[in-house]
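Q: what sequence does this backbone want?
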């Protein structure tokens, strides 16, 4: 960071040496306003804020999270804080402020260099929200963001992923990982065993005051089974002490199935490796279902899926205390044994729906046997329930390919992470019943889907105001609704009375045809009439008045 781009500032809650720069911000009004200068505004009309990455910035595919973060910084999507007091929950508060101002899909990635934890200043850095912004869906695949149009940027990324799926027969391609010399692997630069191990010394934080403790909440947790093979997924791990973690795979998740199978075999321990600071592709695969999930316990090589999606093999090395391959370019590897004959309290924890998840009297316990890490490792934190966890274009593309085969007139699908449980689908409606049938197909397929809204093709499903406009003006609750009274649901939904069971509603917010009880002739929107009666008006406004609108700062 050059001196000319840095200026001093003060804040009562932070040490006086804290700096504010082009990409460094405090939780003040001035600091948050500065984010718009770094390309973090979310309106589609503003083009002034976009920063074009230089050719010297790291390019996709990224081998490490460090390369990827450097690319985010080059694209104006990184905000940096020198020191922050997490004992006062200022990191969490700042993140909420950023999403309040810029939305979940418009807030930047954040870097915290030094953090106060349990009364001590701990060296980071800690990173957060590194796959939250709309533009990250393009950057991760090496696509150029569309200046001033996040929706177009996202759709380009989704179409790129759809083409990848179509070319590979509806599945993401696979490239097998390659093993490299452990002596050259960054994740092995420092090795800790025995009394050297103290997970509490690293900058893992307690995100919410109501959480049960500090958490490792961005780990790709590697587990294995003789029949199911190798698996990794993202599961919350509560820090119990220097060499102990609580481990929370939910029922029916792959890691839980593997633990239960080991218990059934009479085993008392199960090996585990937790990867922190993984490359962006492994992180995305770890937290989503882009890898095929057969009903039978057939091994799925998720490392090969991550390699295939990025077009380059993942480099791996063996863990120190087990045979599981782990990414060589990760920041940290926590290895241990799950004590299948023991349990301990775990939780509560702020979960993905934006509510506090349950306290569990008995949960799995991990005994840490080894930690290896890069020199000065980067720690990643998820503000779960406050941020988009990972890029979503790959999952939207996967659903789109599948739904297009079963839903006549299918156009688009999206699953909003800031309205978890709400799914929106657009169709080109041509006959009665088509809207409700489309919504029911999604509701039955997706456990997250609790409210499924179906709209016409002229509605931009990525724009929530347009979706609500369609509901308010085109939907009649009767008869254009259908309720599923009892079905399978996602276990983290706080509204559920019986775990994993939910009701669902499908809302047909398309224009109702006369055969569905609608009007004989549905009126056009005012905007459509403008564009029909004054062709090219929007382009003329852009040319003659666009700069005036771009330069106006919202108050």
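A:
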């Amino acid at each position: 960071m050059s001196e000319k781009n840095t200026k001093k500032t003060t804040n009562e809650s932070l040490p006086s040496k804290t700096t504010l720069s082009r990409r460094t911000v405090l939780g003040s009004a001035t600091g948050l306003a500065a984010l718009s200068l770094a390309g973090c505004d979310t309106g589609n009309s503003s083009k002034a804020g976009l920063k074009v990455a230089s050719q010297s910035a790291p390019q996709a595919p990224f081998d490490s999270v460090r390369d990827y973060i450097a690319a985010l910084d080059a694209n104006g999507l990184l905000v940096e804080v020198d020191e922050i007091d997490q004992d006062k929950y200022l990191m969490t508060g700042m993140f909420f402020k950023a999403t309040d101002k810029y939305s979940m899909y418009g807030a930047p990635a954040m870097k915290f260099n030094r953090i106060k934890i349990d009364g001590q200043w701990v060296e980071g850095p800690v990173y957060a929200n590194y796959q939250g912004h709309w533009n990250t869906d393009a950057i991760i695949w090496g696509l150029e963001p569309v200046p001033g149009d996040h929706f177009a940027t996202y759709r380009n990324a989704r179409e790129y992923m759809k083409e990848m799926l179509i070319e590979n027969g509806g599945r993401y391609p696979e490239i097998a990982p390659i093993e490299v010399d452990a002596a050259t692997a960054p994740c092995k630069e420092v090795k800790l065993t025995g009394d050297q191990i103290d997970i509490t010394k690293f900058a893992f934080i307690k995100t919410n005051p109501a959480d049960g403790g500090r958490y490792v909440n961005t780990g790709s947790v590697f587990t294995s089974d003789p029949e199911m093979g190798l698996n990794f997924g993202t599961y919350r791990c509560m820090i119990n002490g220097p060499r102990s973690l609580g481990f929370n795979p939910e029922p029916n998740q792959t890691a839980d199935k593997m633990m239960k199978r080991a218990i059934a075999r009479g085993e008392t321990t199960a090996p585990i490796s937790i990867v922190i600071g993984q490359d962006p592709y492994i992180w995305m695969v770890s937290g989503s279902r882009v890898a095929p999930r057969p009903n039978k316990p057939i091994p799925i090589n998720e490392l090969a899926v991550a390699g295939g999606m990025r077009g380059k093999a993942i480099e791996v090395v063996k863990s120190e205390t087990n045979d599981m391959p782990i990414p060589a370019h990760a920041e940290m590897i926590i290895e241990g044994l799950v004590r299948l004959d023991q349990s301990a309290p775990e939780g509560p924890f702020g979960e993905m729906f934006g509510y506090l998840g349950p306290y569990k009297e008995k949960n799995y316990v991990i005994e840490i046997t080894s930690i290896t890490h890069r020199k000065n490792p980067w720690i990643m934190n998820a503000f779960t329930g406050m941020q988009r966890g990972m890029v979503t274009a790959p999952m939207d593309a996967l659903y789109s390919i599948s739904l297009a085969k079963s839903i006549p007139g299918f156009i688009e699908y999206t699953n909003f992470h800031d309205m978890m449980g709400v799914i929106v689908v657009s169709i080109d409606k041509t006959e009665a019943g088509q809207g409700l049938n489309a919504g029911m197909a999604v509701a039955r397929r997706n456990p997250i889907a609790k409210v499924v809204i179906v709209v016409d093709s002229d509605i931009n499903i990525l724009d929530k105001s347009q979706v609500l406009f369609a509901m308010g003006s085109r939907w009649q609750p009767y008869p254009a609704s259908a309720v599923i009274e009892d079905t399978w649901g996602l276990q983290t939904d706080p509204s559920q009375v019986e775990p994993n069971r939910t009701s669902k509603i499908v809302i047909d917010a398309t224009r109702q045809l006369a055969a569905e009880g609608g009007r004989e002739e549905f009126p056009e929107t005012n905007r459509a009439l403008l564009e029909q009666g004054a062709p090219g008006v929007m382009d003329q406004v852009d040319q003659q008045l666009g700069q005036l609108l771009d330069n106006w700062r919202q108050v």
